[in-house]
Amino acid sequence: MKPLALATIAVMALVQPSRSAADDHQFKLLVLAIPNKYHYEYIPVARDSLEHLAKLHAFELTWTNKTEAFDGDLRQYAAVMFLNTPGEELNPAQRAKFEAYMRGGGNAIVVHRAAITPPGNWPWYEKLVGRSFVIHPMLQTGVVTVADKGFPATFGLPSRWIWSDEFYVTNNPYRVTINPVLNVDETSYDPTKIWPGQVAKPMGRDHPVAWYHRYEHGRVFVTTLGHNVEMYRDQHYLDHLLGGIYWTATGLGQEH
To answer: What is the pLDDT of residue 256?
Structure first.
């Protein structure tokens, strides 16, 4: 090849945008995971598992334990995940930015401890979650049942799933309408088994442990499952979590 032709090719390579790994990402997910008294051992395992899912399913993952991530432009993220980290960790300015993000079409994923927030601390966030935490009995093995087999967070699960977790008791003070994804069968464990000095009462047949709904102009997926570190190695649980991420970030995959 002549020197002139080689020079021309070299110049074209400089002016044409190069293809990067980011070009292959379908969407970008922000995960906020701050260690707390009862939830810290899970972090390295959960991070490793979620990073593996991101590589396997071609999405970009930003992992942080700093709320300063909410000071930046949240619009770059298809969804924000609060992983065992409730919204109360955000300062007033960060809360305002997150509210604006949701009103602008942003989306949120709430996992386990992130659903627990002090009543009245941030009512907007309580409404985003869709249910308010009351109490939970001791961690026990029970039967989780699929309430919506057409929702992606149930695709990898059996219709009756033996699972051990803290089955949160919740109420609905703001009268938010949710769409249950998973329920727990209270006849399969003791919903009153709790520590001395505390009282736990059953919720009855209507006991959702995962759900979705629309809030502001965005999608919200909530799972109250995911208490201990080993769960973030469990394939069923990771399938459940991935289905929630996929739907929340894209709005796709739901059977109608």
So the answer is: 78
> How crowded is residue 212: how many other Cβ atoms within 10 Å of its Cβ?
24
Tell me phi and psi for residue 254, to 5 degrees.
Answer: -85, 130
Query: Which residues make beta-bridge pairs with 142?
Result: 163
Helices 235-250 and 42-56 cross at an angle (nearest 10°) of 60
Per the CB < 8 A criterion, the answer to whether 108 and 220 are in contact is yes
Helix (H) or strand (E) holding 247: helix 235-250
CA distances from 38 to 114, 116, 182 (A): 12, 13, 24
Residue 104's H or E segment, with its range, is none
Phi, psi for 100 (deg, rounded to 5): -65, -40
Dihedral sign of CA atoms 230, 152, 168, 207 in order: negative
- The C-alpha atoms of residue 115 and residue 172 are separated, in whole angstroms, by 13
pLDDT in tens, 57-93: 999 999 999 999 999 999 999 999 999 999 999 999 9
Distances (CA, A) of 51 to 25, 41, 58, 86, 135: 13, 17, 10, 21, 32
pLDDT band, very low/low/confident/very high, at 39 (cuts 50, 70, 90): low
Residues in the chain: 256
132 neighbors 119 (Cβ within 8 angstroms): yes
